[in-house]
Model the fold of this input.
Amino acid sequence: AAGTREQVGVRDPARLERFYVSAEKGVYKTDDGKNFRLIGGPKPATRISVDATGRLYATSWRGRDGGAWRYDGTTWTRLLNDTFIYEVASDPKNPERIALTTQDHPYRDATAATGIYLSDDDGKSWHAASDGLPLLRGETITFAGATGLGKTWL
Done:
């Protein structure tokens, strides 16, 4: 995973010895913290998260593989195709409930970010959840009860 421009690491809550690292060439996995194996995914993998069941989510913000992706341990599936999707989170109490946020550079006159989207059916369908928000850009998202600082609590 060395030599990439941005790396984000997450731990698998279902397998505490497992970590994933996002990178320019996709996502890397390790079960020992020493040996990392490329498991594919979007290029570049901008942000990653893992749900309570151990499924991995990745985004590729403004990348050629843009959108929200999920890895079930065998197969990568694109959940939503939007190059401005920045981060994905799943509800720790109900992993079939997924949220994502879009992002665009703040120095543009008009943003291409479209806000927050929610899925209550494991990513099969999505609905906008941005009513009343003064800003449609977001860098992080999570659910109430999830751990972490600097997050948006749904």
